[in-house]
Automatic annotation (TrEMBL):
<keyword id="KW-0472">Membrane</keyword>
<dbReference type="Pfam" id="PF13190">
    <property type="entry name" value="PDGLE"/>
</dbReference>
<protein>
    <submittedName>
        <fullName>PDGLE domain-containing protein</fullName>
    </submittedName>
</protein>
<keyword id="KW-1003">Cell membrane</keyword>
<keyword id="KW-1133">Transmembrane helix</keyword>
<dbReference type="InterPro" id="IPR025937">
    <property type="entry name" value="PDGLE_dom"/>
</dbReference>
<feature type="transmembrane region" description="Helical">
    <location>
        <begin position="89"/>
        <end position="109"/>
    </location>
</feature>
<feature type="transmembrane region" description="Helical">
    <location>
        <begin position="25"/>
        <end position="43"/>
    </location>
</feature>
<feature type="domain" description="PDGLE">
    <location>
        <begin position="23"/>
        <end position="110"/>
    </location>
</feature>
<keyword id="KW-0812">Transmembrane</keyword>
Length: 125
């Protein structure tokens, strides 16, 4: 059996509980979607990072697309007439995709952890 060590006591892995309530997770997700969906269109349109260096050093014209099959070229989703809606939709879709992938990984790892706990429990008997 695996143990999670904390300051109070050792807790078996199967008895660990999520420390945040479901409503806190919902609130954090809503805040993230609001920021990505409604504030990202107002981000600066001026180039930064490598784009800025490429412009300053006059080699930006030599750039070529690395990933031509991008689902969101220039951080914009298709199907909208407004640039702000395109950017906001791309942000929201990106967050939902990331949450889905992370949830799937977490689900698979938790199933694996439960299976390991059951296997070790049977060996102990």
């Amino acid at each position: 059996m695996k143990f999670h060590l904390s300051r109070e006591k050792a807790v078996p892995h199967t008895e660990m509980k999520l420390t945040l309530s479901r409503w806190k997770w919902v609130g954090m997700m809503a805040g993230t979607v609001l920021i990505a969906g409604f504030l990202s269109p107002y981000a600066s349109s001026k180039p930064d990072g490598l784009d800025r260096v490429a412009e300053d050093q006059d080699f930006a014209s030599q750039a070529s697309p690395v990933f031509t099959a991008s689902p969101f070229p220039d951080y914009e989703a298709g199907g909208f007439s407004s640039s702000a809606l395109k950017t906001g939709a791309a942000g929201i879709i990106g967050i939902l995709a990331l949450v889905g992938v992370l949830y799937g990984i977490t689900y698979l790892l938790s199933k694996r952890g439960k299976a390991d706990d059951q296997k070790h429990h049977r060996k102990a008997e």
